[in-house]
Amino acid sequence: MTSPASRPVPPAAANPLNLRGAVDLSSLKQRPAPPAGAGRPPAPGAGAPGAAAPDGGSAAPLRVDVTEANFQELVDLSAQVPVVIALWAGYSPGSAQLVDALEQIVESYGGQLVLGAADIEAFPQLAQAFQVQAVPTAVAVVKGQPVPLFQGGADEQQVRSLFDELLKVAAANGVTGRIGAGGPGAAEPEAPPLPPLHQKAFDAIEAGDYAGAAAAYRQALTEMPADAEAKAGLAQVELMGRLQALSAAETEALRGRAAEEPDSLEAQLAVADLDIAGGHVEDGLGRIVAFIGRNFGPERETARVRLLELFDVVGTSDERVAKARQNLARVLF
Description:
The protein is an alpha/beta fold. Helix content is 47%, strand content 8%. Helix 5 runs antiparallel to helix 6 (210-223), helix 6 packs antiparallel against helix 7 (228-244) and helix 9 (265-277) runs parallel beside helix 11 (298-314). It contains twelve helices and five strands.
C-alpha cells in the first residue's frame, strides 16, 4: 500500500471551528467489540477511558488508543471534555512523531483535553467516517460532534492555537469538564441534587411506584406550575403506569382491536402508548392525530389532551413533535 501524500498542510483558521454535523459518527457507535487479540496491541498504559494502570496506582494517562470497542466511550466522554483524535498509519513516517507531539501538548492542558490515537489500518471505518484523505490527520469530537483540526503536519504553536480555540468552542457548547490525575473519566462532575419533590418522584420510579411518582410531580406542579421538568416527568410516569398495567395478551388484543375499530378512543390511545414506548413515535402521534381528524365532541378533546401529554414524553423540541403539531393544526382548523 502506497502512502498518500502527507505534505504539511497549514491548519484551518481557528475562528471557523464549530460543531458541524458534516460527519456522521452514528454508524460507529455501539459496534460489537472485535475478537480478543484482533488488531494491534495498545500502547503501554493507553487503555480504554478510565482504565487503571497496570500497577494498580494512578489510572491511564490522557492518551487512549481508539478501537471499535472503546470508540463509543470516547464519544460519550466528549460531553465532558473535548476529545482530540489523531488518525495515523504505520505506512506514514510522520504519524508516530505527530501522535507523540500531540500527547505532550494535550497533557500540558491539565486534563482539559483527551487524546485518542487511531490506527486507520486497524480501524478503517473511522477514517471513512471522518473522510480522511491523508495521514496524519487530527480532528476533535465535542458533544459527539466532529470538529476538523488539521491534516498533515503542524508545529506546536499552530496546534496550541487550534486547541485554545477548540476549548472556546467546547465552552460555548457547555463542555467545560476537566479530567483529573486519575485519567479519563476519573473526575466526572457530581450531578447537582434534585429538588425534593423531583427526588421523591425519582425514588418512586426506582421502586416501580409510578402512581407515587405521578403524585410527587403533581405536587411539584401545584407549587410551581411552570416547572417544565415536572410536567414532562408527570407525562412520562403516567405513560409508564398505563403500560405497566398491560399484560402481553392484552397488548396483542389491543392492537387487533385498534385495527378493527379505528374510532375506539380507548384502543387508539392504548396502541399509541405502545407505539411511543416501542420507539415508533411518528406512528403513535399520527394515530392520535388521525383519530382527532375523524371524531368530534368529548372524545376528540380527550385525544387532544393525551396527544399534548405525549408531546412532553417525546420532547417538545423533537422534530417529530413539530411535524405532529402541524398535522394537528390542519385537522383542528
